[in-house]
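pls ignore typos typing on phone
flavin-adenine dinucleotide + seq
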Amino acid sequence: MQINKLFDTAIIGGGVAGTSLLYTLAAFTPVKNIVLFEKYDELAMLNSNPKANSQTLHVGDIETNYTYEKAQKVKRDASFVSNYIYNVGGIEKIGFVRDKMVLAVGKKEVQKLKERYETFKSLYPYLELWDEKFLVEHEPKLMEGRTEEVLAMGARNQITTVDYKRLSESFAKNALDTDKNIQMHYNEAVTEIHREDNGHYLLRTENGEFHARTVVVNAGAYSLLFAQSMGYGHHFAILPIGGSFFFAKKKLLRTKVYTMQNPKLPFAAIHADPDCTQSWHTRFGPTAFALPKLERYHSLHLQDFIDALNIDTDVTKVYFDLFKDSTIRRYILKNFLEEIPLVGKEVFINDARKIIPTLGVEDLEFAEGYGGMRPQIIDKQKHELLLGEAKIVEEGIVFNMTPSPGATSSLAIAYKDAQTLCTHLGLSFDHARHERMIQSRI
Ligand SMILES: Cc1cc2nc3c(=O)[nH]c(=O)nc-3n(C[C@H](O)[C@H](O)[C@H](O)COP(=O)(O)OP(=O)(O)OC[C@H]3O[C@@H](n4cnc5c(N)ncnc54)[C@H](O)[C@@H]3O)c2cc1C
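k done
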């Protein structure tokens, strides 16, 4: 390998965001020298791990928390990932073809779902309305013991589930298979980034110093901390929201089942997902609760956490606005109770029974070792909790914060960032090749 300490691009973070950028740069741009730093010994050990997230490819068809505009965008972003998976022969290895649906329970939800179907059917022509008779045959567990009326809107034979760790590994492998000079530095945390007088960036790790013409920080919640250490992004703060799951002891469903969104709540309603890491056993969740951590299963660096919260009067106002709504207060309390051993299942079961009415507390177990932390962004100027990704772009450096559906959007975000880097480096992006390989199915 060529040793070269002035890189064209340095990427910090080996999750699905960092690796999708590595692949995009290697495959579609003339960028030659790239280094990727990952602080753990493998790719995708945090939120991109299949145990941390819901493994959903968010297409926007069954996610009733998305507006029409958001669904349009997510549909395009998701198509990059699904085309990639098909084009590299990753079906049933990286992405899994199954059925999916959103289930409406009770008169009001059924009415809303019918209206949504009318609005969204031109965007997703394959969607079908599934009545109770169909559901009895297709997914009998949804109907056993049910008294309220239900209706589902579903789709068959779609990529519903993605193992984003395998996707990250595939991105890295395909990048390394090109003729580019790529260095992968595992077990090497970047501790500091500085802009040098010549416009290059100096990256410090415990093993040494590296220089790069451009940098992209794809380090989850830490991206904001890096930005702020360099004087950028002080108008953002992070609210770390944990998400946990419960497993059914048996395989109950073949279909990914989402529920209807309560429009007052900022986080997606729980769903039931056949889990690709557990022989397709049904996983329910995620819950949503504030947790004093930036990584779910690793020790807390208190200073990082305090820096991320970035508490001041603007952030306090956002918290106050959230707490003053009684629906949100109840939701926060419920999600907090769900984390308490023994009590948690008793509280969670009510939500899970909306999907499977006959589910007993004894049929569920807390999914130990599963779950992640969503780095939700607070915009301090607008006094808003942002629900999607956030990005800070400065001269030759990009910082990405990627809560859900960040894994689904990874290749689309990488596409944008790669073009930004090429402009900075005076290089051209190979749009024709990208269109062939990513924007369409070969
Ligand atoms: C409960 C839950 C459910 C979700 N469900 C879905 C879903 O179904 N579908 C979907 O599309 N999205 C989902 N998401 C969101 C999705 O998981 C994330 O958007 C995505 O994984 C983010 O990828 P990333 O690469 O930015 O972050 P990560 O995967 O967290 O990667 C960041 C990487 O940076 C590394 N790093 C951090 N600091 C440093 C440093 N200083 N030096 C070197 N390396 C560093 C970390 O070790 C890590 O590997 C979910 C998230 C949660 C929490």
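The mean pLDDT is 93. The CA atoms of residues 3 and 383 lie 47 Å apart. more later
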